[in-house]
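forwarding from the other thread:

> can someone predict this with zinc ion?

sure thing
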Amino acid sequence: MSLPSQEPQAVDPMPPADAEALKNAAVQAFVEWTRRLPVPPPNSQEFIRSVEPKTRRAARIYSTITERRVVWKEGPTHGSPVVTGLRRQASSVDLWAETPESLRNSSLSVLACSPCGGVGSSPCPKCKGRGNIQCWNCRGTRKAYGYAKDNSRRLMNCRQCDASGRLTCSGCNSGSVSCAACLGHGREQRWLEFVDSVRSDVLVLSEDEHLRRLVWTTEGMEQDAKLVGEISANGVLTQEKVAQHLPEEWVQEHWGKTRVPLKVYERITRQTFQVFEVPAARVSYGIADAPSTTVQFEGRRMLAPPVAEDRQLTTRGRKVLAVRLPLIAVALGIPLLYILRGSFFWNGWLAALLFSLGGFAVVTDRLVQDWTLGRRQKIRQWRRGMAVYALSAIVVALLAEPRLFEARRYISKGRLDDAQTELQALGEPESPELQAAWTDLHLAHALREQQVHEVAKDALAMKPGSPERAQVDQHLLSLTRQQVLASLGRKDVTSASAVLASAHPVLAQGFPKDIGELTARLYEAEHAACTTDPCRWKTLSVALRAEPTPSREQRLGQARATLVEQLTPRPRPKAATLDWVLHLHKTTALASELADTPYDPQVSVHAKQALTWAREERERIPLIGAEREVAISLLQLTASSHPNILSKTTESVALSCELRDGRCVGAYLAGADKESRVLNNLKRTPVTKELLSRVLGHPVELPAPPQPRGGKPPTQTTWKDGRVTLVARWNGIYLMELRVGEVKP
Ligand SMILES: [Zn+2]
Ligand SMILES: [Zn+2]
Ligand SMILES: [Zn+2]
């Protein structure tokens, strides 16, 4: 490589900057920049106080740096020249003084080939130098299977190796191969070569540090700066060369910084020095009479500074935002309050209120914006707008409010639903100034209404004793009478009762006689539908109580006499017939129903006495001797699988009775539980006693356990009750079964 040449190239003279265009670009850049601020002011260029365009210089040095090393190369020779040995050492080479050719020529050395030791051949690796290999067919045994002439397969002499067991090696010539490294010449040659690797370095110099901080100085500098001159050299550029194109003091100051740090084997092989002109603009701005803020836009693209460099416009934007929030709250919050006050307010006035408050908020926001920008002449105009919208909001809010005279107007026109909405919106109905209007509304509504429960509701909402209430009560009474009588005429007791129940709370005090009479009629209708004597007596009792009349009194007396007659004990027949048992059951049912009646204490006493009488009479009838039907009715016996056996099983004791000629002649009692049939334990004794008493027709005690006789207790005892024989079977003191009358074991 030749020594670095210094061939300076022509440098363009710097053209004068177009100051006007630069200014315009700066203003545009300023406007763009302010748009990134909070609440950017419209026409932000109005706040620019001065634009100061300027051109600054920047330089860029590209250095190409080459790192050079010396390496040995080696290769085969042509023919077998004389061995020279190594002619040079790598350390003796001057890296930058010699050319590649001279280095190669002076270092070219011939040496004996090291893989073959200078012989030029080596033993064949396939046959290990023997020149033949084992026969693959017979594997060296000389014999191999094959087909004979008669087509039989057998062991024969190997045909591949002619029965020698070995084959000639195909990879060599009599066991040796030519050396691959020296191509058989037995020599190798070596020489020295340069190996270069190249890197580059860029350095930017500028008039002030501010410029160097910008990103574009390392990338895409051409976009923002204009190249005005360039000097290149094969090698290092000298200060003298550069000094011809730049102010001397600038070179004095900055040239020292251009030195590139190099490593041991490195050298600068080319350098290019570029001079740029960078347009820039200082923009000063301020709101009203505040002190100026100055920001700088750089490069042909007029790159903006960070937003944080602004103070004035940001502070002003925050003020606007601070006012905007409460404005939004007012514009949306007040209509929301009206919405929450109830459906009365959900109308066109609310929309108008929303519109007025929205307008007020918008105008106020604009006022704050212009005021913070110091635009006084516009403020006056916004103030007028604020006043108009505020006034309109107040008027609309007043118009949206409910009014008493409006409610009265609706009542007089018969628009009662509208009147009610208006009154409800006015507030509590209890407040004295509204009470009269509410009374009028209820009166109007009640007199128009045909539904008893609706009229009753109106009446209850009115002040008792007032003439309006009396009017409504009268209307309600006639409506009730009409509807109850109509319902009773249709025999529809349910709806009559419902109508009466609705009217009762209102009319019970003022019209007791009318309500009483209607109530009595209602019970009389129920009486007519009665199917039993107690029902008739009860309905007549309540009817008489509701409204006493002599005829009601007389009818009740008759119904009562019928009941008392039914409850009066009858003489016992000689034989207990089924009719008698059924009469006792009927009396018991009737007496149970009337025993606790609240209507007549005497009837209650009669009923209780009849209950006792019927029970005692039932208990007097013995099962033994009773006809089949009487027995079934008396003790609720059921027919069993056997045609002559009736049985009854209580929870603990089983009773069966044996029939002969349609009469019960014997009974059998045992525990119902198969596991334990004991009849006289604590749980079963009362049941057994009761059943035995019913079997015999009078109260009896269970037999006592028999005394042991001769050491062993008897297992059976027998005794008589009148003419009936009873047999008990025992297991020690336990009563296991009872047989009464003629019953087979
Ligand atoms: Zn060799
Ligand atoms: Zn062979
Ligand atoms: Zn070989």
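Residues 1-16 have pLDDT under 50 and may be disordered. thats all i got for now
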